[in-house]
Amino acid sequence: NQVLIGTIDGLSIIDNYSKKITANYTIKEGLPSNKIIALCSDLKSRTWIGTSVGLWYLENKKIILSKKLNNTAINCLNYSTDNGLWIGTKNGLFNLKNDQLILYTTTEGLSDNNITCLAKNYVTNELIIGTKNGLNILDLETKKIIKFQFLIKIRTNNACHNLYLFTNKKIITS
């Protein structure tokens, strides 16, 4: 019943019914930085907060530092019930599940270590991974990574910044 909005001025919580801000979180309330880059919620009612200085979460109205990826800029987040929290950084893709952190990089087959966007395809059980050098698909069962090559290079840049998945298995990236 609430909407969370991350901005360069912190995190705001808006009541969905009254449309009023019910809480604000900034450096004063414990955020390491007012610049919120990514938000994601999990099944434990935590809101994960990606900032330029690490991974934090909001739980019971308190900002808590995750002991994982401290001082690492977080580009994007995605949570799935069966695979945990996916964290995109400039240093690769991290998967945080059961307090274990697994790293995927170009060594594992990604087209680039700078992860810019993430989306889970629940129909095919795949994680779509946008990077600074193209699109990748991680099969969540086999852990195999497939690289997509674009037919047209726009401004000699294959960076993916947004992903949209449709129920007919089509992907739009920009």
Structure in words:
It is built from no helices and 17 strands. The chain is an all-beta fold and 174 residues long. The strands form 5 sheets. A 4-stranded antiparallel β-sheet has the order 4-5-6-7, with no helix packed on it. The protein has a 4-stranded antiparallel β-sheet with strand order 8-9-10-11, with no helix packed on it. Strand 8 and strand 9 (84-89) form a beta hairpin. The two termini are 30 Å apart. 28% of the residues are buried.
Structural class: mainly beta
The averaged pLDDT comes out at 85
Task: Report the radius of gyration as a whole number of Å.
Answer: 17 Å
Strand order of the largest sheet: 4-5-6-7
As a percent range, the share of strand residues is: over 45%
Overall morphology: globular
Give the proportion of residues in helices: under 10%
- Separate helix tally: 0
Count of DSSP strands: 17
| Helix and strand sequence | EEEEEEEEEEEEEEEEE
Tell me about the largest β-sheet.
4 strands, antiparallel
Main features:
4-stranded antiparallel β-sheet; 52% strand; 17 strands; mainly beta; 174 residues; globular; single chain
Annotate the secondary structure layout.
Layout: E1 2-7, E2 10-15, E3 21-25, E4 36-41, E5 47-51, E6 54-59, E7 62-65, E8 74-80, E9 84-89, E10 92-97, E11 100-104, E12 115-121, E13 126-131, E14 134-139, E15 145-148, E16 163-165, E17 171-173
Antiparallel strand pairs: 1-2, 2-3, 4-5, 5-6, 6-7, 8-9, 9-10, 10-11, 12-13, 13-14, 14-15, 16-17
Quick rundown:
The protein has 174 residues and is an all-beta fold.
